[in-house]
Amino acid sequence: MAAVPVLDEPVFSYLKPADVVRLGEAYRFSEAAHAGQTRQSGEPYISHPLAVAGILAAWHLDAQALIAALLHDVMEDTSVTKDEISDTFGKPVAELVDGLSKLARIEFQSAEDAQAENFRKMLLAMARDVRVILIKLADRLHNMRTLGAVPAAKRRRVARETTEIYAPIANRLGLNALYQELHELAFAHLYPLRYRVLAKAVKAARGNRRELIGKSLEAIRQRLSDAGIEASVSGREKNVYSTYKKMSEKHLSFSEVHDIYGFRVIVKDVPACYLALGALHGLYKPVPGKFKDYIAIPKANGYRSLHTALIGPFGAPVEFQIRTEQMHRIAEAGVASHWMYKDDTSLSELQKQTHLWLQSLLEIQNQSGDSHEFLEHVKIDLFPDEVYVFTPKGRILSLPRGATAVDFAYLVHTDIGNRCVAAKVNNELVPLRTELRNGDRVEIITASHAKPNPAWLQYVRTGKARSNIRHFLKTMQYEESASLGERLLEQALKVLGASATDIDSASWDRLVREIGSRSRQETFADIGLGKRLPAVVARRLLRRPDAARDESGATGKPAGSVTIRGTEGVAVQLATCCRPIPGDQIVGSIRKGQGMVVHAADCPQIVRSRKSAPDQWLDIDWGPATSRLFKAAIEVTVANQRGVLAKVASEIADAGSNIDSISMDEDRSVYTTMLLVMEVADRRHLARVMRALRRIPEVMKLARAKG
Ligand code: MN
Fold this sequence. Notes:
This protein is α+β, with helices and mostly antiparallel strands. Helix 6 (82-89) packs antiparallel against helix 7 (91-100), helix 8 (111-128) crosses helix 17 (347-367) and helix 17 runs antiparallel to helix 18 (371-382). It is elongated, with a radius of gyration of 33 Å. It binds manganese (II) ion.
């Protein structure tokens, strides 16, 4: 193989002529050093470093990196020393090659020790110079592409290492195309049979849909061009590995995985992204909850794009990615795009982020005693599916991603979970629903009187928390109902001019016997759950003659009002039509077996019922304030302008509220009306949020939504 013609390949044409000459020298140097060595496939060894340099050239890496790529195995596999490389190609190249070379094996007790220590060396070299890891990843990619020639046992080991370390690093650095290919190759070698079967199924499914895909491509292009949006639209075939991952994570069969095909829309600028989104939502129906704005909130690796899922012509959800050309480059090549697009100033933020991450690796290194521990910490950092947090005493606990402070509390101890009232994350007081992030130091604040809240079930992620909360609520439902029943009975007695203190235990015993109840407590619970009418029980207790006649009916005119507490369990439910919050005037109605349902006094849903059956309704008051948040709904009409949703969301967050859900109307021409459900403490808090929203110029109309 002649050296110079190979390096004449167009892939190196971005280099200066002088650099191409130096590259030629490095090639000859490496070829001479590896002379007589062959790869498992039987090819001369030099074919490997040359291929690695070729992969790096596609990212337009500089001459130093390419020279180091050509020399990356000489120190390890030949007698060439670091000093020799330094003398011939300069110190920076020698440092890069050194960072890529494993330590001499003699020093280690076991293969695992050697592996861990080698990783530490490589990761530290990478923290000093990110080119080290880019060369290592290109090296690994070529080894994976040619893994077929390697014996089976080694193949599996290399494939597993790729899945555990190299693919996650590629992902962390935003090298998406590389990340996808590494995973695909590793999957094919780890599970050859699954890979073959699935690859065949994916191919067949695509074939069946080819015509429909072509038609929808046409429809999408037409719609965007009608809207005056310049865009390039392409189909995007998902690989076998990501289909497999979806099947195993969501427990789906192949026929249930709809999105083996997606679309990508590339437009000229950010405003056009949102315009294209609007146009596409007009073409196909969006799937609720699938819209993600990674432009407003980029991923940690710098990835930016709009994602949405639309019910496409197949009648099944199809994923869409909408981004600019510039975002697309970063999405494909991540950190490596720095070398490819030197004039792109938006990359400096990405560089800064990467630098911070690499710095954090150095910090981990300083805190970790040995290389195994270091490797574990780095793996933790690289794996997005789990978060690792610290207890106040420094113990590390692992939780699934998305887990909250409540999950943490239950993981520490059931009692701590049951009694938690607040959490401190990194010494700052946060709501219990706060999602925990890697490295957070979490402290749970408990109170002896505290109880689990049914609302927690909506956000806890761990089975342990969920089952404990459920169990507690079952017990609590009974106690809550009994306590509500006792208050309702007290009120009914008051109407009859009596009080609970007037009733002796003999009267109670008699009543319990008569009505076939097991205890006084059970009678209260039955009242609270609406199984018995408080007025009837009150008359029977007082032995009033008209008791029997009233068995069917009314509770009588209420005297004063019952207070409900903020943390009511199942015995008191807040109606979801009007979503009452503290400060609202409220009324309650007892539903058989459900306890009391609380509505806002002006809820339009209950007007008729309150007129026709006024005696079924009780005036009630809110109890003293608690830390609980309540859901309130508002209707907002906004001018359709880019980023308006982001503005609304950020004002709501700034006002200390959380958005629970957003639904939008179909017509998205000039104005959009959204129904926002958010969490607030009370009416004053809601008023504050609404005032903040009114200040947004695009907000045209704003009102509380009831019913
Ligand atoms: Mn190599």
